[in-house]
Design brief:
alpha/beta, 5-stranded antiparallel sheet, 9% strand, SH3 type barrels
């Protein structure tokens, strides 16, 4: 059978529109969603994203499970997850303490929903699979570890190293690939810049109760936000949305693969034959991968020759120079302040002690400012000398113009080729089913693992401490801004109270007290404003300091996106290689062609052995050597004994398949028909040993 019925959605209209989308009737499907108020179009993309995140949070308040799905870059996905986390924090659903994650703009708080996007080995849990979801139960006081409850009910502690190794992320917003197999009450689909038909279908079929689609007029029309007063044509916007979400890409998620286990192997071979692809073309495709990798490695060696130590020394000198300039500006302001104080004094005051002190302070601060400017000039001269020296960054940039940009382009091109090959589930990077070369496939799998580990290592170098310092400074600045606003409101209230007093009261004690409160509140507002400025400056310095997040992002562009591509390709490659190995083993063992690989569970293994013994006994007794047909051709009915043995072996084999859960839908029938069917049966996909199925 093939996948033809949507069983998640409870609403018949949802199932109808999902089936229309799968059939390629994108306009009709969106029209159906739109008539039921499920397509929401805002002016800007930010507004559309905010509406989707707010709706998902409202669902959680009602006790519903919700998921936001979008096809976009990893950086944008992290930003959306951070905004979703902020909404939960505002509602008081999360704890105050957070554990920082390498390369993420957020930390994990108690109550957060997370997903582990990389396979890892945990000391308590053992192997933890890619895509495992969980909930953070508690954050340690030192903010270095969390306690996580996994979806299967197990609980364990994860320190920061284990979280980074498992590529832990927030799970409020997801790409379509990790969302496959997940079911929620309500799904919110954002039309992202990387949307395609297959990914949209995955997003539309996640919910039981309701699915909503969010888009923006600025993305659909390409003209930016509509002018005030001008209402875009909704029909035209829906058509543009259908074109954007219905784009065809080369990737083939699981929804594009029929669920007919019986013809799986034959269909893979048929697709190869019908496509007209010659197996001899595979080496040329592999040569293209080798060329891309060689170019990437060549440019990588050039970029690695960059004088990083000299550049760090230059950055240190420039940072000290900037600090000296800042100190000089402060001393110059103080010198001007005391000079103004001196000028305001009268002739007698200037000659007195107060005038002499003001003059001395003005001269002292002016001299300090001059010295600091001179030190800054010397530091900047040293930095320029290092920059323009024969071994400095300036000489390297002149010798290798655009090397980093070309390396990034080569990395992107290679990752796109890997993603394309993984999406097709064939090609040189996976070891094609036709002309399968186990050694070459293992070599490619090892290369993908090396690329994945290299990118993970780069991501671990992300300056998370600096990012955490910047985040904390931003929070303190935001709190100071709120304090400034509160102090200004108190100033206004004190002014209103004073204005409501009569003339005599204003000149009396009450008026004096009100004026003093007003001045006190004004001073508080100025102090809070100054503190907020200091914290914002601290946040900027934490992000922009040498080796900080800004410099790291510039020197590691697209690392997160490429890591996701290589992780997914490695997973697909491992699965494909395992399936092909099973197919090869099955082709050599006639019993395995009917019953699949020998199960691990003891009860199922006994059933498998009975069926295999029946097949082997018949083949030995009647000297069957045909490798294509398990029981060979049907014997002549006049050969009563052989024909009876043939039917009996077929009957036992089919019973074993039914008891193993391979053929639950096949009922009994004439024995001769069952026997004819056995000659064409193929095994299930690998990994189907689900435990005892006897007596079901």
């Amino acid at each position: 059978m093939e996948l033809s019925r949507i069983v998640r959605a409870k609403d018949a209209a949802d199932r109808r529109d999902q089936a229309r989308w799968r059939a390629g009737e994108h306009d009709r499907a969106l029209a159906g969603f739109s008539r039921r108020g499920r397509v929401l179009i805002d002016g800007t993309q930010r507004q559309a994203e905010d509406r989707a995140l707010d709706a998902a949070q409202a669902d959680r308040r009602e006790g519903k499970t919700a998921l936001v799905v979008v096809q976009t870059s990893n950086e944008q996905l992290d930003g959306l997850n951070a905004r979703a986390q902020a909404l939960r924090a505002q509602d008081g659903e999360l704890g105050d303490q957070a554990v920082a994650l390498a390369g993420r703009p957020y930390g994990l708080r108690s109550g957060d929903e997370i997903v582990l996007r990389a396979a890892s080995v945990h000391p308590e849990l053992g192997a933890v699979r890619n895509g495992t979801r969980g909930t953070v139960l508690d954050v340690a006081e030192d903010r270095e570890s969390v306690t996580v409850a996994l979806a299967d009910g197990r609980q364990a502690g994860f320190d920061r190293g284990q979280l980074d190794a498992a590529s832990a992320r927030l799970g409020y917003v997801s790409h379509t690939f990790p969302a496959q197999g997940q079911t929620v009450d309500r799904a919110h689909v954002i039309a992202g810049e990387h949307a395609d038909s297959n990914g949209t279908y995955v997003a539309l079929t996640r919910a039981r109760e309701q699915t909503r689609i969010y888009a923006s007029a600025e993305r659909l029309t390409g003209d930016g936000e509509p002018e005030p007063g001008r209402v875009p044509d909704r029909r035209a916007l829906i058509e543009a949305l259908g074109e954007r979400l219905g784009r065809t890409e080369v990737e083939a998620p699981s929804i594009a693969v029929p669920l007919a286990h019986e013809q799986q192997v034959e269909r893979e071979h048929a697709r190869e034959r019908e496509s007209g692809v010659d197996v001899g073309e595979r080496p040329r495709e592999r040569d293209q991968f080798d060329q891309l990798r060689a170019e990437r490695d060549r440019l990588g060696a050039i970029v690695d020759s960059y004088p990083a130590d000299t550049a760090r020394e230059i950055a240190r000198l420039q940072g000290h120079a900037a600090s000296e300039r800042q100190l000089a500006d402060g001393d110059a302001w103080r010198a001007g302040h005391w000079q103004d104080q001196y000028e305001e004094l009268g002739l007698l005051g200037r000659r007195g002690q107060q005038g002499r002190q003001a003059r001395e302070r003005a001269d002292r601060f002016a001299a300090q400012a001059d010295e600091q400017h001179q030190r800054a000039d010397r530091l900047e001269t040293q930095a320029r000398t290092l920059t323009e020296g024969p071994d400095g960054p300036g000489a390297w940039e002149r010798a290798h113009p655009g090397a980093r940009e070309r390396l990034y382009a080569a990395e992107t091109q290679l990752a796109a080729a890997v993603k394309r090959s993984a999406g097709e589930r064939s090609g040189p990077v996976l070891g094609a089913a036709e002309g399968f070369d186990r050694a070459a496939a293992s070599q490619e799998l090892g290369w993908l693992g090396q690329e994945r580990d290299r990118l993970r290592e780069q991501l671990r170098s992300y300056p998370s401490h600096d990012a955490r310092d910047a985040e904390q400074a931003d929070r303190r600045a935001a709190q100071a801004d709120r304090d400034v606003q509160a102090a200004r409101e108190r100033v206004e209230r004190a002014e209103r109270e004073r204005q409501q007093m009569g003339p005599l009261a204003r000149r009396g004690q009450r008026g004096t007290d009100a004026q003093e409160r007003q001045h006190s509140f004004q001073a508080q507002a100025e102090r809070h404003e100054q503190y907020a400025g200091v914290q914002r400056q601290a946040a900027r310095e934490a992000r922009e300091r040498p080796g900080g997040p800004v410099e790291w992002d510039r020197s590691h562009p697209g690392v997160r996106d490429r890591l996701t591509i290589y992780e997914d390709a490695y997973e697909v490659c491992s699965e494909q290689q395992a399936q092909r190995a099973v197919q090869i083993a099955v082709g050599r063992d006639p019993a395995a062609r009917v019953l699949g690989p020998r199960p691990r569970h003891p009860d199922n293994r006994k059933v498998w052995d009975r069926g295999a013994e029946a097949i082997s006994a018949y083949r030995l007794a009647h000297d069957i050597t045909d490798q294509r047909h398990v029981l060979g051709p049907e014997p002549d009915r006049r050969e009563l004994e052989q024909h009876a043995d043939w039917e009996q072996a077929a009957k036992l084999a089919l019973q074993a398949r039914q008891q193993l859960g391979i053929d639950p839908s096949r009922g009994p029938g004439p024995v001769s028909e069952q026997a004819r069917r056995v000659t064409h049966l193929t095994p299930p996909l690998p990994g189907r040993d689900r435990g005892p199925s006897l007596g079901r």
